Amino acid sequence: MESTAAEQEAFVAAVALTLQEFLAEKGTLLAGISPDALVLVDSIASLVTGGKRMRAILCYWGWRGAGGAPGAEEIIKAGAALELFQAAALIHDDIIDRSDTRRGGPSVHRQFGSLHAGRGWALDRERFGHAAAILTGDLCLSFSEEMFASIGSGSASRARAIFNLMRTEVMAGQYLDILEEVSGPTKPHSTAVARAAAIIRFKSAKYSSEHPLVLGGALAGASPELLAGYSAFALPLGEAFQLRDDVLGVFGDPAQTGKPAGDDLREGKRTVLVGLTIAAAGEADREFVDTHLGRQDLSDADIDSLCSIMVKSGALTGTEAMIADLSTAAFTALAQLPIDGAISEALSALGRSAVSRTS
Amino acid sequence: MESTAAEQEAFVAAVALTLQEFLAEKGTLLAGISPDALVLVDSIASLVTGGKRMRAILCYWGWRGAGGAPGAEEIIKAGAALELFQAAALIHDDIIDRSDTRRGGPSVHRQFGSLHAGRGWALDRERFGHAAAILTGDLCLSFSEEMFASIGSGSASRARAIFNLMRTEVMAGQYLDILEEVSGPTKPHSTAVARAAAIIRFKSAKYSSEHPLVLGGALAGASPELLAGYSAFALPLGEAFQLRDDVLGVFGDPAQTGKPAGDDLREGKRTVLVGLTIAAAGEADREFVDTHLGRQDLSDADIDSLCSIMVKSGALTGTEAMIADLSTAAFTALAQLPIDGAISEALSALGRSAVSRTS
């Protein structure tokens, strides 16, 4: 146990160092183009410094469970590529969701907006912030790819197929998510839960949990059976994780989650929690949800009303029950994985923290 | 001559077919996630159907000049990857520049805006359009990368280094471009031309001309000397091309360019043409340019005034002189390239059309 914790810590440190060196090199390149362009890399660097590195860690244990050597360069690079991809996704997500904060600091488009305001530049501050953040996200996406491509040969082509699939699926899932925000109210209430479940599968569970674990396994040359076992564990785990995230997004403590209360409701996220609410609430409550969700000007009283509808409709309890069922499925599959006990325990610890966290 | 034209046509057709097959496969994948997600691939497919395929063609002749075989799979994939990258860049550029049209049709964010309006969806139409287009561009960027990574081994790692550099440089150049729009008026008039020249170098000339040609050469295993010769031809050519573009963006015929008159002026593009104007115009004219450039509400009379200032300041003539000088440098370098005469002639034809075009 202690040695897996130390090993994981060493891996995380190695990923951080690789990212730091990579971005320092990119900083030199950009500074050569223009000192003004350096800010692009700085904002990426500060973003990848934070975060839980959950995807990189899952990837690592997927690698180790399939017989990959501790601390090998391939897996460090794969982990760094996943972290850069996640940073890129966050930068663009925050524009799409109009989130002002990220990992305790201002989101990237807000950083550029502040730069604009601070220097007294011309034209529209917000527009500049969005444009600069679109470009920063694109750059970060390219960096992720560059890092992944540097892994080299061996089993990299099987891992590459998963990396490709992961990217396509998460972007499609993100699209379905924003589509649901605008088209959800026009679609049948009876299928709201199913639609929300599809979104979290592609946008979150496969992307943040299943693919990283399977990618690590594939990189180490795992058998198809082991990879299927990884999926049977990580997919329900990822779904449970996202359901937990949705609950925290509405009922969590802002001091712990780092996101202002009501942010998810103002964004109009049509989560499984919302789907269950819509499916079970009475006519008046449903009407209230449909007309208030996604409004930027929600008052504290509106937020309280929405929360109360979610509780009394049984949607909160229902979501917690789904989390419990998915967790059971995940941990049952984990127990059957033909991997080293210490590695299984490391995955179990990750799983427990994913579904029972408070932030 | 006739055979190079036929060969180039066959290459362009092969790139188109490869793109079509690749996107059909992605369409199947996305439809499996949700039929609603198919629109993402459809909008990419319609975008890559058009265009002059200039980058792919330059890449092809770079490959052929370095001894690459006609119609080889590697170069077709490299060409397709460049086309996908360009499509991704256009999708995000059009959001940044707020362009309503692209290649004769609505830009991608406008397509999604229309979808929103047509279906009577909730919340903000424009916001949905931008969000969906950010995701479509990200998906297209990933597709580009996936296509490039499928080239395989051989000289692919040298080409990969160029592909990586190309992406970083173009994104940095795009950032410098939007930065100049907002910060240009606060910076010295005397350096406006130099700043604009740096932007076109990284945003356009290296990206659209030098890197594609060099990438093709590197993929075929060209010597460093040949690659340096390619650069000596393609960099000034690309600069001349962009200067021509800037002139057409202000003085071109909208019916031929496909862009509404004054679009570049409303966007506030700080081109070399604008830099020369600012450096040479009288105080009152300069003041007029600084206060009008980048205003969305420019009237036809404002546009006429801006054009007239550009003419009488000598900026238009100055830009044409720069185009002539750069062309001379490019064609002198081309004449010295140790490549087959027919290939040299093909590059020459491309060069001529790039600098003397009307659309």
TrEMBL record, chains A, B:
Show the Gene3D superfamilies listed in the entry: Farnesyl Diphosphate Synthase (1.10.600.10)
- CDD domains, per the entry: Trans_IPPS_HT
Q: Which GO MF term does the entry hold, naming one?
A: metal ion binding
- Family of the protein in this entry: Belongs to the FPP/GGPP synthase family.
Query: Which PANTHER family is this protein grouped with?
Result: GERANYLGERANYL PYROPHOSPHATE SYNTHASE, SHORT CHAIN ISOPRENYL DIPHOSPHATE SYNTHASE
Keywords assigned by UniProt, alphabetized: Magnesium, Metal-binding, Transferase
Q: What is this protein called?
A: Polyprenyl synthetase family protein
InterPro entries in the record, alphabetically? Isoprenoid_synthase_dom_sf (IPR008949), Polyprenyl_synt (IPR000092), Polyprenyl_synt_CS (IPR033749)
Keyword hit for Lyase: no
What the entry lists under PROSITE patterns is as follows:
POLYPRENYL_SYNTHASE_1, POLYPRENYL_SYNTHASE_2
- Lineage per the UniProt record: Bacteria, Bacillati, Actinomycetota, Actinomycetes, Micrococcales
Protein species of origin: Arthrobacter wenxiniae
Provide the GO biological process annotations: isoprenoid biosynthetic process
Cell wall biogenesis/degradation as a keyword of this entry, yes or no, is: no
Cofactor(s) annotated in UniProt? Mg(2+)
